[in-house]
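Before the break, one more example. Copy the sequence into your notebook; we will annotate it together after we see the structure.
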Amino acid sequence: VDLGGADAADMLTAGATDTIHKHPLIRREEEKYNLSINTSTAVTTEQLTQIEANPESPPDVIIPDVIGIERASRNEWLEPLTDHTDLVPAVENIYDKFVHYDGVAASWEVGEVLPVINSNEWESTPTSHAELMRNADSTAVVPFSWSAGPYLLLMASSIATGEPFDSRLDVDAGFDWLEENFAPNVSSEYGGVASAKQQLASGNVDTLNLFWDYMVFDMFENDQPIDPLFRLDPTGIAFAESVAVTRNASNMDAALVYANECLSPWFQEKASEKMGSGVTNENASTNETALEFGATTSDEFDQLSFPDFRYVWENRDSWSERYNALF
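Here is what the structure looks like once it is written out:
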């Protein structure tokens, strides 16, 4: 496919995701399809804000977490990838569990949203979220504006009530639990990926809670004293970075071929090598070093839980005020 020098606008998320898309994916796509890709970097909530604010000229491609796909799908902002298998044939090889909301998006990597500790600062490794939150001496907590902010609240609510993480939990109980058991151990709210990692590596904090597994893969490779705590009790929190094309994309064909390359085995294997992530294409293999790190396989993904995304979106603003007051 030669797209004749078309321009495409792509919104990427922070950290290693941004890096791996810019090189090698974007460089290869520009050469392969004769197009120019303009990128900007934004977390999931900011990507959705851009679509909502510019419904007639949204970014062509977004790279959000599944919680963003849920809201975008509900608002009919996305073009189904599965309706365009001529330009996105790779979507047919994605495991069904990673094709979302009637095909409007698919995940190109999988992992876990989890606490990460400085192993030099802990005498023993916690085995549950409750044990970790109670016993940390100095935690950098996730900002509520990031998708894991509500997840932390819901995890505390699950601990406090004994109800499943993916249910419509009593957050009043969760806030009470956080205030009593966790807030006294929080020293700061981290402001960005790089600064959070530096704080953890230096021992200024002993825990990042919550964080993303792929964001510390480079620290693992460099033998830094960090330990991502996979699948803690009562459950691990699922993460699946996805690719979607907006329904009103100005450059639909360019956006669709971008999605196809993103879902392809070659890119997923490169992402696994560079990010320590799991793969979603049945023809791709997870990198060996990533497996040593703890990368989530397709089978292990079934042991993780997503929250009730609709419940989060319905209540996010009111929860945010209480969370920010607490931390």
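Residues 99 and 106 are 4 Å apart (CA to CA). The chain has a mean pLDDT of 94. Try to locate both features in your own notes.
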